[in-house]
Amino acid sequence: xxxxxxxxxGDDRPLREAVEASLARYFDHxxxxxxxxxxxxxxxxxxxxxxxxxxxxxxxxxxRAAEMLGLNRGTLRKxxxxxxxx
Length: 86
Description:
The longest helix is centred in the middle third of the chain and has 20 residues, at 38-57. The chain has 2 domains: 1-34, no CATH class; 36-86, Homeodomain-like (Arc Repressor Mutant, subunit A), CATH 1.10.10.60. By secondary structure, it is an all-alpha fold. It is 63% helix and 0% strand.
């Protein structure tokens, strides 16, 4: 990433815009239905691919991955186990 917020490729959108667009589509498809626990649902959808991507970036080095994520290594391992990633 060039400025810490945007991917280097010019045709990729910043993460924030991608999330906003995804949530807008989600709300459009609700068609009047109510929703609860949206925060937990979004976190469950985002956390596993985040962990996978960071581990790929660090070539499986959990210590470096934990540092990148701002987590302690034990917390990272707990999250990896929760998502069936180890």
